[in-house]
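Researcher: Sequence recovery benchmark, item below. Answer with residues only.
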């Protein structure tokens, strides 16, 4: 895998990987969060506000697969009293969270008009919910 990354090859076929690459060997991906646990002390998070943009959101393949790459780093974060493993990807324009996890954590979901998110492998995903403030 590291050799393919060094040669800038797609992880799944022998073609060069570039933004918008459409791999002939399509894969189905799943993101799993491990180690969600209760914590006694509370974190004072800063408020985040997002400015409007006319560009289509983009999500890198590393963010989608949960793998790390040259533009990614994995951190432990606290949301409320729960510890989470978070993948920070500078190749993505937005941050995403699995709908099931948001519900499980009791995060306030807001309905928004559907947004199409373009993934680095060419796929497009639909997003229709948003979380305004996470602490």
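Model:
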């Amino acid at each position: 895998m590291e050799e393919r990354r060094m040669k800038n090859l797609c992880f799944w076929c022998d073609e060069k990987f570039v933004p918008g690459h459409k791999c002939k060997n399509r894969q189905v991906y799943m993101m799993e969060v491990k180690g969600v646990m209760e914590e006694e002390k509370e974190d004072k998070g800063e408020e985040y506000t997002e400015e409007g943009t006319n560009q289509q959101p983009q999500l890198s393949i590393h963010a989608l697969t949960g793998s790390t790459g040259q533009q990614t780093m994995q951190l432990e974060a606290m949301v409320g009293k729960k510890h989470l493993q978070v993948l920070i990807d500078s190749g993505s324009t937005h941050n995403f969270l699995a709908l099931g996890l948001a519900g499980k954590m009791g995060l306030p979901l807001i309905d928004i008009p559907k947004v199409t998110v373009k993934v680095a492998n060419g796929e497009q995903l639909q997003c229709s919910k948003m979380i305004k403030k996470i602490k």
